[in-house]
Amino acid sequence: MVVRGIFRAVIMGPPGSGKGTVSGRISKSFGLKHISSGDILRSNINAKTELGLLLKSSIDRGQLVPDDVMSRLILTDLRAIERRSWLLDGFPRTVPQADFLDEVYSVHTVINLNVPFHTIKERLSSRWTHLPSGRVYNVDFNPPKVPGRDDVTGELLVQRDDDTPDTVTRRLKAYQTQTEPVLEYYRSKGVLETFSGTETNKIWPHVEAFLHKKLFVLNQKLL
Ligand code: ATP
Ligand code: MG
Fold it and tell me: CATH number of the domain at 8-222, out of 3.40.50.150, 3.40.50.300, 3.40.30.10, 3.40.50.1370?
C-alpha cells in the first residue's frame, strides 16, 4: 500500500526489542523512510567525526547522548526529507526529546514493541550487526545466509561494543527511567499502539495489519 499524504510514525521499545528489524519491514512494505538515531550516531563514530569520538564513550557505557545534541542531529535528517513519510526509530527517547519533536512535527502513530526484559538479555548477546546499514542478525533465530557476513553486501558483521551484558543492563535501566515516560506521553495523546510478544516474526503480522488499516483510513480521508 502507498501513502497518499505524508505519514509520520515513531517506533518504540526497549533496546533489542526488534525495532530495527520491524522498521526495515515497514519501510519496505509501506515506503516510509527509516531514520534510526542509533545508526546516525554509529555512522558518526565510524567516520571518526569530532562529535562521534566525543559520544562513543558514553554510548559504550550505555548512557544516553544529551537531548540537545541528539535532537539537532535528528532534525537535520528530517529537514532533508521534508516532503516524505517517515518512521523514527530510537528517537524520541526522553520526554524533552518528545517535546522537541512535537514542536516541529506532529506524529500520527507510535508503534510500541513490548518485549520482556529477560528475552532481550538473551537476544543481545547473540546479535551481530552490519554497521554501515544497521541490519541485524541473530545466530539463534535469524542467522545470515553466510556465517559472519551481511546478506546484501557480503561485508563482515560485528558485535556492537554496547551489546555486552553490563552495558545491556544499563541500557535497560536507562530505558525504564528515561524512555518509559515517553510511552505515557504518547498514550495521553491517543497515538500509542502497543504490540506484545517475544518473537519479531510473530509480532510483525500484527504491526503490518495495523498499518494497512491505519493507512487505508488516512488515504480515504485524503481522497
Ligand atoms: P537497538 O539496537 O535494539 O535499537 P538501542 O535502542 O539501545 O537498541 P540504539 O538505538 O542503536 O540502540 O542506540 C544506541 C545508543 O545510542 C543508546 O544506548 C544511546 O547511548 C544512544 N542513543 C540512541 N538514540 C538516542 C536518543 N534518542 N537519545 C539519546 N541517546 C541515544
Ligand atoms: Mg536500533
Answer: 3.40.50.300
Are 107 and 113 a contacting pair, CB within 8 Å? no
pLDDT tens per residue across span 87-133: 999 999 999 999 999 999 999 999 999 999 999 988 888 899 999 99
Predicted TM-score (pTM) of this structure: 0.89
Grid coordinates given for 7: 505519514
Q: How far apart are the CA of 93 and the centre of ligand 1, in A?
A: 8
Residue pair 88/9 in contact (Cβ under 8 Å)? The answer is yes
For residue 23, the ligand closest to its alpha carbon is 2
Q: Which ligand is nearest the CA of 96, by number?
A: 1
Cα(95)–Cα(79) distance, rounded to whole angstroms? 21
Residues near 3 by Cβ (< 8 Å), separated by ≥ 6? 30, 31, 32, 85, 215, 218, 219
Taking phi over 0 as left and psi of -120 to 50 as alpha, with beta for the rest, 169 belongs to alpha
Q: Of 94, 99, 127, 101, whose CA–CA distance to 20 is shortest?
A: 127
Centre of ligand 1 to C-alpha 206, Å, is 25
Residue 62 vs residues 38, 65, 67, 163, 221: alpha-carbon distances, Å: 12, 9, 15, 9, 43
Q: Cell for 175?
A: 530505558
Which residues does the annotation mark as catalytic? 19, 93, 127, 160, 171
Ligand 1 centroid vs 219 CA: distance in angstroms?
32
Query: Measured from the CA of 38, which atom of ligand 1 is nearest?
Result: 11
